[in-house]
Amino acid sequence: MPFSFASRRAVLRVAGILFSVVLLAACNDSNNLNTPPVPELPPEPQGPGTIVEVAVEAGDFTTLVAALEATGLDQTLSDEAATFTVFAPTDAAFEALGQDTIDGLLGDTDTLSDILLYHVLSGQAVDAETALSLAGTTIEMANGDIAALTIRDGALFINGAEVIVTDVEASNGIIHAIDAVLTPPADAEPAGNIVEVAVAAGDFTTLVAAVQAAGLDTTLADPDSTFTVFAPTDAAFAMLGEEAIAALLADLDALTDVLLYHVISGAAVDSVTATSLFGEMVEMANGDSVTIDIRDGALFINNSQVVIADVPATNGVIHAIDMVLTPPADEVGTIVDVAVANGSFTTLVAALQATGLDATLADEAATFTVFAPTDDAFALLGEDTINSLLEDTETLSNILLYHVIADQAVPAETALTLNGSDVEMANGDSVTVTVTDGNLFINDSQVIIADVEASNGIIHAIDAVLMPPM
After folding, report:
1. CATH code assigned to 194-321
2. Strand, helix or coil at 355?
3. pLDDT in tens, 195-242
4. Are 277 and 136 in contact (CB under 8 A)?
5. How do the domains of the chain map onto residue ranges?
């Protein structure tokens, strides 16, 4: 069939269309080759989770998280609309309680909730910098009780727990890890006034007798007054010796001064508040001041340890202490003057006089530290040994000088830092200074009364006579 002009035109039209399609596809391919791909945007960074989520993710608070879940407080601390500061005990902190205690708490959710809320500040996120600025004060926790913030050796403490990790951020607050579980103050009902509670306790018979002898029992029973009493136990008074106690009971002015040195008037200072006063001087009812200290986690008033804290009374609070506090003397004599006036060192004074060392220790131009055995300490040697020593003044002098550090007055605070050290005494031999359970020992003799000041040095009473090495 002959190829017509019209057919030819139709073929050309189709060919043109096909060419255009091919050309367009080629252009598209060229554009694809020359246009870089659009990069994918990274996902927006996620902020920290809630207090509970952060604690779970950390992995070191599994017991805390379990306790929160057992009490339902995990829901509280997950509230994005609230703000909290949590002092979070680590798993190691909980382990120190013992598994039986932990299991008991998990079965007593009311008590457990109270404890957990004692670790929480509600309504604010307090970072470490702010917490450090609050050192020396108390803060109210979410359970309504107070906790003390202190700085010790550069570290932040809440009550007796050290803050070991700070400023762990959460979306609804901040976490500080601590190395011990905090225990809220006990809620105990008082059984009577200060005097009634002391009498009922049965462990303050000497104190009660002294208070009655001085006529202070009426004062400390006053329902319209408030007191804090640091109460020496019977064992604390016994360390003074019977002669010293009898001398005090016979001198009502001195007795009253000593007793009032154990009393804060006008305030019931609980142990948490006292802890917040770490390193501070506190004025007592006799006008003199004591120093608040914390050693190995224990609360000390001067060098006396609080062994039972927060015994409530209707007109204040009692803290039992293990040593009688001695007020600083107004007019201080020499080492020998102070020893004579004290009344508990009659054998020591007699020995000094027998050897002529009384003149040495009375030298106002010299300085000494004397570890002074009480009469009870000398009595342990036996009368025959004492008489023999008094006749052998050369041996006696060597023994006495073994109780003396020459040329310096070493307070107990300094002596405590010498734990494990040997110190040369005035006879040329050395003693070993140790600290056991917060108590200072010179060889095997315990310092039972520290820092008795003299015009030419300092005296520390000890409970046994030191014997130089043979």
Report:
1. 2.30.180.10
2. helix
3. 999 999 999 999 999 999 999 999 999 999 999 999 999 999 999 888
4. yes
5. 51-178, 194-321, 335-462
